[in-house]
Design brief:
This protein has about 130 residues and is mainly β. It contains no helices and eleven strands.
Length: about 130
């Protein structure tokens, strides 16, 4: 079964940190770009960050620049999203996705994605 599975979400206080993981099974992520998205209740899905297959190209949404870091470990077939200095407005369901495009575009949201995870909830609250 070809799938992506996110993990690492949870409840964290403002200013705290979380690291999300995106593990692929049934296929290798080596040739896929990875994107992270989030969707809060009543809001449209937002592209947060994306990384090329080699890891050499990365884009971030302005809302998370300087706070979030996307990375990947192809040996582990896994992508990551390190989130620091979390704010209540970061509260959302976070999804990862894999794009056979391999490269990244100026906007992570316009890239075509072949696989999507089921999402993991991140809640930032005191």
């Amino acid at each position: 079964q070809l799938q992506l599975v996110e993990s690492g979400g949870g409840l964290v206080q403002p200013g705290g940190s979380l690291t999300l993981s995106c593990a692929a099974s049934g296929f290798t992520l080596d040739y896929y770009a990875i994107g992270w998205f989030r969707q809060a209740p009543g809001k449209e899905r937002e592209g947060v960050a994306c990384i090329s297959s080699s890891g050499g190209s990365i884009n971030y949404a302005d809302s998370v620049k300087g706070r979030f870091t996307i990375s990947r470990d192809n040996a582990k077939n896994t992508g990551y999203l390190q989130m620091n200095s979390l704010k209540p407005e970061d509260t959302a369901v976070y999804f990862c996705a894999a794009s056979g495009l391999g490269t990244v575009q100026a906007s992570c949201s316009v890239m075509p994605y072949d696989f999507w995870g089921q999402g993991t909830q991140v809640t930032v609250s005191s």
